[in-house]
Amino acid sequence: MQHQEFRAAASLAAVFSVRLLGLFMIYPVFAAYAQDLQGATPYLIGEALGIYGLTQGLLQIPFGLLSDRIGRKLMIVIGLILFAIGSAIAAQSVTIGGVIAGRALQGAGAVGSVILALVADLTSEENRTKAMATVGISIGASFMIALVAGPILAAIIGVRGIFWLMVVLAAVGIAITQFVVPTPRTVRVHRDAETVPGMIGSVLRNAELLRLNFGVFALHAMLTASFLVVPGLLRETLGLAAHGDWMVYLPVLAVSVVVMVPAIIVAEKYRRMKGVFVASVACLVVSQVLLYAGASHLVVLLFALTVFFSGFNVMEASLPSLITKVAPPDAKGTAAGLYSSMQFIGIFAGGVIGGWADQHGGSSAVFALTAAIALVWLLAAVTMKQPSYLTTRLVVIGEGHAADAETLAARLRQVPGVAEAVVIAEEKLAYLKVDSKRFDAAQAEALAGAR
């Protein structure tokens, strides 16, 4: 990437990270904190933990579409202001209802889609994948850092202090957006990075994409529901002091990363994606069954958590890759937008149904529920089609092709390694699905640039 592109990718990854750090740090410490709030019940605690996913899932696509009209940076600043106000409300609230309202407002600052659209505005077609990968890595790193940092910070400044820290992080994000992130010369729709309303219907009719959307819904529903009861189990089983569970999360996450890296290499490099995918979902099923049957036993609890986070991290890396492989070349952004929305709706569903299960049956009921969700996902995963191992490539087309886009698309389909080609004349782009091992980029660019 060029210096300006690297600056754009790195600074926008930082904006993404400062927001997610705060949201994720709450996960391991919220359930114990919320028990002392006025009006708290297990169900309402679950709703409070997951409610930000509902507002974020519902507003993410509208935020992105609005940013096409009034500007990316403005929408990011508006979203971070909403996030800061929601954090302040949650910090000051002494009732569970007040925290629910604050968490809902936190999620209303749904800037994720806008950040990705701005990345696309600020990077060239050939470097966009690298820039998006930078943002993706920052998201994964934020999650793992936050699970360890959350309990440590809660012991120092309290959970209210973490909410106030989110206000500070939002201010940092606004400063980075205004003073570090470059301003794009033009703002336009990028089909590879944004949701196109006219394509939502076709994406929703794609059975394989629906299967993947259910997967990310299930994954984050299980995660959120589990965090309603796992921190308490760790304290009871290991005799940990309050907020000492970071000592468990740190080695568990370290092992999960060691497992994840070779699994992704086997899946991508050796093209064993379906096998790795199904095995990872099976690990999630096993982990939830173990938690249901033996969470009160130290060895079982630690082993189950290690298996869960190993499967979780493999899925977090694999699912976005599969979306890219399965989505039509000109609908990648739309497919990714709906996928992300389902991820957040899964967070909300996990909080609500996990809280309901905890209120009516305790931790065993929560794990019975998450095991059932994982089992349904396993059945869906087993029946998925073998992935095509195709990636999306963008090729700029010459002015002379604007009037005959379909002819150019047909010619591009004849290029070695090209499986699909869609030419959008008004965007001066050809969207290709290619086998990267066989794709002749030089020939495709020569065709697209020919007059």
How many DSSP H or I helices? 15
Rg over alpha carbons: 22 Å
Which regions contain 5 or more consecutive residues with pLDDT less than 50?
none
User: What is the structural class?
Assistant: mainly alpha
CATH superfamily of the largest domain: MFS general substrate transporter like domains
Q: Helicity, in percent?
A: over 70%
What is the chain-wise order of helices and strands? HHHHHHHHHHHHHEHEEH
Main sheet record: 3 strands, antiparallel
Number of strands: 3
* Overall 3D form: globular
Q: Kindly report the spatial arrangement of strands forming the biggest sheet.
A: 1-3-2
Account of the protein in words:
The chain has a three-stranded antiparallel beta sheet with strand order 1-3-2. It is globular. It is mainly alpha-helical. The longest helix has 52 residues, at 128-179. The chain has helices spanning 3-34, 42-70, 72-92, 96-108, 112-122, 128-179, 200-204, 207-226, 230-238, 246-269, 273-294, 298-326, 332-382, 405-412, 441-449, and strands spanning 391-396, 418-424, 429-434. The model has no long low-confidence stretch (mean pLDDT 92). A hairpin with a 4-residue loop joins strand 2 (418-424) and strand 3 (429-434). The chain folds into three domains: 1-190, MFS general substrate transporter like domains (Growth Hormone, Chain: A, Up-down Bundle), CATH 1.20.1250; 202-388, MFS general substrate transporter like domains (Growth Hormone, Chain: A); 391-449, Alpha-Beta Plaits.
Write the layout of secondary structure elements.
Elements: H1 3-34, H2 42-70, H3 72-92, H4 96-108, H5 112-122, H6 128-179, H7 200-204, H8 207-226, H9 230-238, H10 246-269, H11 273-294, H12 298-326, H13 332-382, E1 391-396, H14 405-412, E2 418-424, E3 429-434, H15 441-449
Antiparallel strand pairs: 1-3, 2-3
